[in-house]
Amino acid sequence: LRISANQWKVLREKAGLTQKEVADALGYSTPQFISNVERGRCRFPVEKLPRIKKLYRLSVDQVVDLIMAEEK
Fold first, then answer.
1. Nearest to 22 by CA among 41, 40, 35, 7
2. Rounded distance between C-alpha atoms, residue 27 and residue 16, angstroms
3. How far apart are the C-alpha atoms of 17 and 68, rounded to whole Å?
4. CA distance 59 to 34
5. What is the rounded CA–CA span in Å between residue 25 and residue 28?
6. Could you tell me the pTM of the whole model?
């Protein structure tokens, strides 16, 4: 399973969220960090993953797949 950084954008949009809404929910002052994640410039910190799982309505398996894809 190969997941691109763009997959984060697809998942966010599927959840009906804007970058600003995600940034606010995760405690970031601007959506710039979310944009950087979606462009593959950085990754979500591990401690944010439980919140992201809830926001994006993901299963544990989906989160693990995303993390494993980023490690490759």
1. 35
2. 19
3. 24
4. 20
5. 8
6. 0.84
Question: Tens digit of pLDDT for each residue in 6-19?
Answer: 789 999 999 999 99
Task: Please give the DSSP secondary-structure letter assigned to residue 46.
Answer: G
Angle at which helix 6-14 crosses helix 60-71, to 10 degrees, equals 160
Whole-angstrom CA distances from 6 to 54, 70 are 19, 11
Distance CA 60, CA 54 (A): 10
Place of tokens 């399973």: 1
Which tokens go with 3? 């997941």
Report yes or no: 12 and 22 within 8 Å, Cβ to Cβ: yes
Distance from C-alpha of 65 to C-alpha of 52, rounded to nearest angstrom = 14
